[in-house]
Amino acid sequence: MREQEIFHRLEARYPNAKPALNYENAFQLLVATILSAQCTDVRVNQVTASLFVHYPDAQALAAADLEELSREIHSCGCYRVKAKNLIGTAKMLCRDYAGEVPPLMEALTRLPGVGRKTANVVLSNAFDIPGLAVDTHVFRVSHRLGLSDAKDPEGTESQLCALIPREKWGKAHHWLIYHGRQVCSARAPKCGDCLLADLCPFYKEQQNHR
Fold first, then answer.
1. d(C-alpha 105, C-alpha 19), whole Å
2. What's the pLDDT at 210?
3. pTM of the model
4. Which of 27, 91, 115, 120 has the CA that lies 20 to 30 A from 127?
């Protein structure tokens, strides 16, 4: 089956794929993932290196001054919205979950600024609960490969999960991200160097237009 062969090759190519965000616990991963929206992981890691010293837990972040936090995360973009969401999330964690990050999709997606993508990242990486987060790389690569034709990330997540064994959802997320960053980039994909070119509808379409 073509889809199975695609994931088999990706797994062989990226056996050690893992999150690019630096974190030591579920709280730090949640904060870093919220900050990573429309921002590079490299930049987020630069910011969180000092941020986690100032705000080591939900209690500290809940008590943060909005303007001060905004200044600290300014370089991550959308800093005012993110600062408001971070403080709101921290307050909700303290109020409803004793300051701990809940390992439940329904609970996570009730937190300010947390959608299914962020929740899946936290569940799969911090709690080892199967989840497949669909970011821009996963969405682009899966559509080019013909693994999904859904119009939105949630539909893409559903289609991908139907193709992949549940225990590999989290890993598949990282395989697709790695491939999107290293080979199947948005503007100049390296189709000539792609190990999936013979299985890729996007590549075949590009060839037909030459």
1. 19
2. 66
3. 0.91
4. 91
